[in-house]
Amino acid sequence: MTASFLGQDYLEIRDLTVDFDGFKAVDGVDLTFQQGRLHFLIGPNGAGKTTVVDALTGLVRGTGRAEFRGRDVLTMKSHKIVRLGIGRTFQTATVFEQLTVLQNLDIAAGLHRRAGHLLFARGKVPERVTEALETIGLTALAGRPAGFLAHGQRQWLEVGMLLVQDASVMFLDETVAGMSSDEREETGDLLKRIMADRTIVVIEHDMEFMRRYADFVTVLHAGRVLAEGTVAEIQADPEVQAVYLGTVTEVAADA
Ligand SMILES: Nc1ncnc2c1ncn2[C@@H]1O[C@H](COP(=O)(O)OP(=O)(O)O)[C@@H](O)[C@H]1O
Ligand SMILES: [Mg+2]
Asked: Residues 160-178: pLDDT tens digits?
């Protein structure tokens, strides 16, 4: 890679293709996700955003290459990919509702430990978990069952679960969808706090959020990269306006 990547993590994807029985949901995509910048992946419903993440986390089979720290993640099983430091959230929340915030974090941290070593058994909270609680702003709610959290807090808990897993690469799939504007702002600030030594990919529909927080944007459309660049470059791109931004404006105007 080029010198600008020296000493920094990056996930380099070349010719990624995901074929569902002849339908190419992802069709020859090249992408480079770099450490230390908030990289937004946008595009209309069905563009292939989630499928890209599924392929990079071992949930669906993709062809091509996706290199991280010298390994091609497309050849790896999902649990090995987690151990390599690549994590993701899902569009539907994955926290255990009956367990407390702290217990959810401890279980996530335990993915790196042997079974039977949870904090209930040990009686002390690992430093990594305490730190994550602080970072996501849920220290005061550590003992609350996750099912009682507000929507935004639950999403932050999911980010915390990636933090305790030591994820160096984080895919956040529509994490701010359904959040209030205050929650969005807090989420943006949270991402800014943790991005310096991480590679963060944000899948998002909210254009206001993108304008405010994106350092770099890739637009997917029909399984291909339609455009890439800064927010200003993306917004000025006539093709992007036609297939995506135009549509969103119309929807917003109707709402
Ligand atoms: N398991 C699957 N089998 C067949 N088609 C799928 C599967 N998963 C996703 N697709 C299709 O692939 C396309 C991309 O989907 P997806 O990656 O979820 O889009 P996005 O996240 O951008 O909204 C859609 O047309 C979707 O219907
Ligand atoms: Mg999706």
From this structure: 999 999 899 999 999 999 9
